[in-house]
Each structure stands twice: as C-alpha cells, then as structure tokens.
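Entry for the shared binder. Reason: the reviewer on the internal report wants the predicted structure included alongside the sequence.
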Amino acid sequence: LPEFDLHAPMMSLGLAFRSNEETIPAKTPYLVVPEEAQAKVEEAVAWPIDGLRVGLVWSGNPKFSRDRFRSLHLDELRRLLDVEGAHFYSLQMDPGRSQLRTMQMDAAALHVTDLTPYIADLADTAALMENLDLVITVDTAVAHLAGALNKPVWTLLPSAPDWRWML
C-alpha cells in the first residue's frame, strides 16, 4: 500500500463519525419500481380489496455462515398466519420456498399465496412489494429492498443482532 496517515476498517466508520439516526441522511424512497415490472405484476396478480396485505420471507441463503441465526422454518410463523383480516404473500425464494409444499398443511390452508412464480429478479420483487401494506422478513435483501422503497418492514433479527441495526 502507498504511505497513509490513518487506517480504519470500513465497518468502524459509523463509530468514528459518531453516526446515529439523526445524522444519517435518508431520503426515501431512493429506489423506484421499473414500469415494466409494475405492469407485469398488475396483469398477473389479483389482489384482495380488503384486509392487510403482508409479504413474508422466513429464510435466507443456507450457504451464509450465520444463516442458522436468522432463518426460520415456515412452521414457526403459524400463529402469525392466523391473524384475522390479513392476507399473507410469500416472497420466499428457494430453498425455503419448498417448505410451502412440504408443510403438513398446504399453502391454501396456511393462508399464504405464493408470489414467487412472478419473481425473476429484484425488480419483480419490488413491484410485488408496491402492492403490500407490510413486509415481514428475516435479514435478507428483501428487508433492504423494502427500506429502499420506503415500505413498512418488520425485520426478524436474532437474539444478538448485528450492531448495524442500532440495538
């Protein structure tokens, strides 16, 4: 490396700059859904008129070294799925998506509509999210995409969350 005066790991800069919620500029949304993706979703999905529309992601990439601390099994969300007046939509990609098929009850009995046949990329995911009232997800790209779109999101964190969540 060339000569330098100071070295700070990138993940330490928040502390060095004394960052907090008031000092982090956040103009949201800072991503917009491409018109093509939105048109594709509007043509393909019939959304209910009444009730709360909630997107779900319960599992991340199992190859991630700390995945066991973030991913759930769909069965752990059964009580949530019984909330009256709520319509649940799976944004869960494989391998977690297969849990919809292997659960003792089928997806219809779980009150979960699988939207993944309409997802080819994150633009499609964003277009689907535009039609949701809330996204509930483990710490995956979906949580960050919801934030970038300024969609309400509940992120399910491990009992010892990463410092970046400001907890």
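Summary line for the report: The chain has a mean pLDDT of 88.
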